[in-house]
Write a structure and sequence with these properties.
CATH topology of chain A: Alkaline Phosphatase, subunit A
Largest sheet of chain B: 8 strands, mixed
Number of domains of chain A: 1
Strand content of chain A: 5-15%
Radius of gyration of chain A: 21 Å
Structural class of chain B: alpha/beta
Largest interface: A-B, 53 and 61 residues
Radius of gyration of chain B: 23 Å
Number of helices of chain B: 16
CATH superfamily of chain A: Alkaline Phosphatase, subunit A
Number of helices of chain A: 11
Shape of chain B: globular
CATH class of chain A: Alpha Beta
CATH topology of the largest domain in chain B: Alkaline Phosphatase, subunit A
Strand content of chain B: 5-15%
Distance between the termini of chain A: 67 Å
Helix content of chain A: 25-40%
Oligomer: heterodimer
């Protein structure tokens, strides 16, 4: 016979199902955790009273590094009290130094390539997510290069899978061919230099969104011979270092470091995707991906603080391309996909760090994913004339 | 073609029971918007391979639609009629291939920024249907059981964190005869409420002896089918020129016999199992994903009274192209990672069970196999509590009743 005294009361939570309530909680949970854990202030009161500017760096000398995640992580696994163990570097090192936007809404197609293309153009692109097609609107790289007449080596994209090979420049007639960024697909390079994949298989994991399909490569891709001629990296050194790495994203970050040293590009865009292993349904691997991404973001921030060409004049943006489905939506399968278009799959966050960016401030107002490009334009001195987004005044 | 132009002969290729049903409701179909109807036909065309619970649900939905006046229909489908379709969608053969239409519709909705409007329309329709057609309560409270952590002695992290707030956490379970007690419990329930597909057992490894009255699906039993499927996928993708949409279409058309399943088997269960592999993501390569998805689909479609789910170690992660290549090599397992997967999977099993009618009375038990931790959820157990008393699973089961 049981007695009530057998049990002691533990913490309790309840399921919330109303989308508006979920949206409110989403914002509240990020804000609440940031205020309580990272000691950050709410930003609205600071908006028009900031003494900060971008610092003394002229626009022409400024550098921007953008990190996007191809495969977002949900609050449950990141910002909630139980999720914070997965993002120690964001929590302790980056967020306290950042302006943090709790509500970045992606109103476009929730596929990684097309969503990243939308982030890079400031327009919700509608190209086929799984085809080898360039964005239809000009990219941030084209705007920047055209305005400042910069060479191709000043803008780079490091991307995870073959599907991203056309992300560097658009098909727009006023921009396009030869005006965009150089694109490096590190896995493609590694596959090209290794006849046997046995020792490198762990770095050659394919797109998790469509594991059965990889589009044919074309476009402005960094080819193997350029590894030595441009990056001054011998194939043997590249292979040897690759063997010390454990994931495709680590390989991407390694390449980013090489680019920073060799070219010091003004605009560097890296898209990570280890988290997207979630599509295979293995929760433990999804968590591993989050933890690795957390670590790699911190590594890249440290790189901008240690490399002489970047120190003191670099702004780092970190944002997932979108979220993942909530546990509550019966149309999805929780963390595994981003198919429902529900509020958690559309809403994510963004942080900005660097000189002139307010530190330890949280902004709750809704920002649009496509606001990134015009913001970069205002920051770096170009006009994103065809972007549909608006500059984010809080970080300008 | 538009729904009002539907003709009886267009359903000739449907399986017998599906065709009969379609012809019975042909007049109703003619009154529905094209943005909605193929989604309904996607269910109708599968009627011969559906579970009894699905038969009842679909029958009620059709009967309800048939009973609506023209004015009611306009109100029910106003949002659907506002969805703009492309000419190519309208011209496609949505009667013969409704699933392909729905897939193309999905792409169209994303591209034309109508996904939110469609989603709202669908939710609104489901709400109206729930109000119009009373849910069928189960004959007895549902009981879900999840056994996790096979092959692991020490959990790498605290277990059942997501389930604990809803039930009682037991920290001193006597694991002796644990599985035996659980199988006795499901046998007892199957005997008390005998019905086809009402009691299920899903195993991520090799199935254990179980009562014949219990429907069983196991990852091990599907091994040959999985190998055949991966070989098929591999062969198709090697041909080149095949995009993901074409591959999905191909997979959706596969029949159980195409993948080596015996034609003499249970056609409904065979179809169910094939769909787990052709429609699920990760189910072909990770047993933990297979089990979680199988449980979700069993709950969603068969609405079982009893569901025992036993997770097993999945293979260790390798490059995706290696995982997807058909291989009979000895696989390396990842028991510890699988426990983390299964812990989340157990939570999803409970959520999926709670989506069914009668959830306020349903029961759920999750147990760390052969270890001392369990969590039990029942209307008669206090929520968010912890018990450190030594107790075996039979004792916990008796407390839950």
């Amino acid at each position: 016979m049981r007695s009530r005294s057998t049990f002691r009361v533990a913490n309790r939570r309840v399921i919330k199902g109303d989308p508006r309530e979920l949206a409110r909680q989403l914002v509240f949970s990020r804000r609440g955790f940031l205020r309580s854990t990272a000691g950050m202030a709410l930003g609205s009161a600071l908006l028009h009273t900031s003494p900060f500017g971008f610092g003394a760096t002229p626009q022409s000398k400024r550098k921007v590094v953008v990190i996007t995640f191809g495969g977002g992580a949900r609050d449950e696994e990141t910002f909630t009290p139980e999720g914070q163990e997965n993002i120690p570097h964001l929590m302790r090192e980056l967020i306290p130094q950042s302006s943090f936007f709790t509500q970045v809404v992606n109103r476009g197609i929730l596929g990684h390539y097309v969503a990243t293309a939308s982030l890079a153009t400031g327009v919700y692109e509608t190209i086929n997510n799984f085809a080898s097609l360039p964005p239809e609107s000009p990219t941030v790289f084209e705007y920047f290069r055209k305005e400042w007449k910069r060479p191709a080596s000043d803008t780079w994209v490091v991307a995870p899978s073959n599907g991203f090979n056309r992300i560097g420049e658009s098909s727009h007639r006023s921009f396009g061919l030869g005006c965009g960024a150089q694109v490096i697909l590190p896995k493609y390079l590694l596959a090209a230099v290794t006849s046997s994949q046995a020792d490198y298989g762990h770095l050659l994991r394919d797109s998790y969104e469509t594991p059965l399909y990889a589009p044919t490569l074309s476009g402005n891709i960094f080819e193997l011979e350029q590894l030595e001629t441009m990056l001054k990296l011998s194939v043997d050194d590249f292979k040897a270092h690759a063997q010390t790495l454990s994931s495709p994203d680590e390989l991407s970050v390694y390449i980013v470091r090489q680019l920073m040293r060799r070219f010091a590009p003004s605009l560097l865009w890296v898209t990570l995707h280890d988290i997207d292993i979630a599509h295979a349904g293995a929760y433990s691997l999804y968590i591993e991906g989050i933890r690795r991404t957390d670590r790699l973001c911190a590594e890249l921030w440290k790189a901008t603080q240690s490399e002489p060409e970047y120190k003191g004049k670099t702004t780092l943006f970190i944002l997932p391309d979108f979220g993942r489905d909530s546990d509550e939506d019966a149309g999805g399968n929780g963390f595994q996909h981003h198919r429902t278009g529900d509020i958690t799959s559309r809403t994510t966050w963004m942080m900005a760090l660097g000189p002139g960016i307010r530190e330890g401030v949280v902004y709750d107002r809704a920002v649009d994913s496509i606001d990134l490009v015009p913001t970069l334009g205002s920051m770096m001195g170009f006009t994103a004339s065809l972007s549909k987004g608006k500059p984010i005044p809080e970080i300008l | 073609m538009r729904p009002e132009d539907l003709k009886p002969e267009q359903f000739n290729a449907y399986p017998p029971e599906a065709r009969k049903l379609a012809l019975e409701y042909l007049e109703t179909f003619r009154r529905l918007p094209l943005s909605f109807l193929p989604s309904l036909l996607r269910e109708v065309i599968e009627f011969d391979f559906k579970f009894p619970a699905e038969h009842r649900l679909l029958g009620k939905e059709l009967a309800n639609l048939g009973s609506l006046s023209q004015q009611d229909l306009r109100a029910w489908f106003r949002e659907f009629t506002e969805i703009k379709l492309s000419e190519s969608l309208e011209k496609s053969d949505w009667v013969a291939s409704p699933a392909q239409f729905v897939e193309r519709l999905s792409a169209h909705l994303w591209t034309t920024h109508q996904m939110d409007a469609f989603r709202h329309a669908a939710v609104s329709y489901a709400d109206k249907l729930r109000t119009a057609v009373a849910p069928e309560l189960p004959a007895s409270p549902r009981f879900g059981i999840a056994v996790i952590g096979q092959g692991v002695d020490v959990a790498p992290q605290p277990l059942f964190r997501k389930l604990r707030p809803y039930g009682a956490y037991f920290s001193a379970v006597n694991p002796e005869n644990g599985l035996k007690h659980l199988f006795e419990a499901i046998a007892s329930r199957a005997n008390a409420n005998p019905a086809q597909y009402a009691h299920w057992y899903i195993d991520g490894g090799e199935q254990l002896p179980h009562p014949p009255t219990v429907t069983c699906v196991s990852y091990k039993a599907m091994e040959q089918v999985r190998v055949a499927l991966l070989a098929r996928i591999h062969a198709e993708t090697q041909k080149g020129g095949m995009g993901p949409e074409a591959l999905r279409t191909l997979m959706a058309q596969l029949q159980p016999t195409d993948l080596g399943m015996a034609p003499s088997g249970d056609p409904v269960l065979n179809r169910f199992q094939i769909k787990l592999l052709t429609e699920g993501s990760g189910t072909q390569i990770f047993s933990t994903s297979f089990v979680q998805w199988a449980a979700r689909e069993a709950l969603r479609r068969a609405e079982p009274l009893t569901l025992l789910v036993r997770f097993a170690p999945r293979q260790r992660q390798k490059p995706m192209n290696e995982l997807l290549s058909p291989s009979r090599d000895q696989v390396e397992l990842d028991p510890s990672g699988s426990l983390v997967d299964a812990d989340m999977g157990a939570y999803y099993n409970w959520i999926d069970q709670q989506r069914l009618p009668g959830s306020e009375k349903s029961l759920f038990l999750a147990w760390f196999e052969n270890q001392k931790e369990a969590v039990a959820i029942s209307p008669v157990l206090p929520r968010g509590t912890v018990s450190n008393e030594t107790i075996d699973l039979r004792g916990i089961l008796s407390w839950m009743a």
